[in-house]
Amino acid sequence: MKLAHLFKYSFACIFATLSIAMTQQQNTQSSVQVIEEVNFKPHMVEHLIKGCPENSKCSKETGKTSEKFKEVFTNGSLKEKKIFVKEFGLPFTFWTTTVSQDSVITYQSRCIHHKTEKDKFGKVLVERQEIYEGIRFTKNINEITSFHGVILNQMIKEGSNKTYFIPRSTIPFFTNGDDLFFRQEFREVDYAMKLSPNKGSTATYISLATKKFPNKEILNTSCSKELVDKFKKINKSGIYQSAYCKMIYDTKEKKYHRYIFGWSC
Questions:
Q1: Where are the chain's structural domains?
Q2: Which UniProt keywords apply (predicted)?
Q3: pLDDT band for position 38 (cuts 50, 70, 90)
């Protein structure tokens, strides 16, 4: 157990042994003492709702799905993992302007420019639209876009007019045509994700990536004027502070392509 978690666990256990006494005066002479005991459980070190990540807003139902994900992806077989993904999908990250929605896990954004700026006395210096980090179990990115206030991370390929929706704060390890492959982490559990755009529609399907990743590095590169101009068009909301470019290997064409990505913080 990590030192920080051990400290929180020890503190919580001590706190749970304490009783809260409430005294009510009766006729200013007698009093009644009511004892309320705290029923502490180990998962409460992270969140009151089991399965919900630390410091998040998360429903009980989503917590159950999250806990099942952790159990299956930590101890389950590949077959069990595929069954889970077929029913629930995989955790997909994005931004949102809505702090609380059913089936969406939200956190305060770590980016300063996603929040209203205040001085040490609480006076507003710069008022901004609050933006939160979101996570949802899904099998199709289109399911996420139906939620109010969702902002998806975008990636643009050089020489193409196509924009790809990808998980927040990440880039693909490689591509196979339009299919994108990522390594992701949720609740200290690693998994490989495949995004497959459906030809002829706007749907992008999310599945478990099981094929071996090629031994090809992601290469640093400069950004072309074409990509910078296209990036400016997708960043009108100011979700990103800047941009950077990478060369990513495509196993279908057996060559590298240049992409531009936004950087938030």
A1: 1-45, 46-263
A2: Signal
A3: low
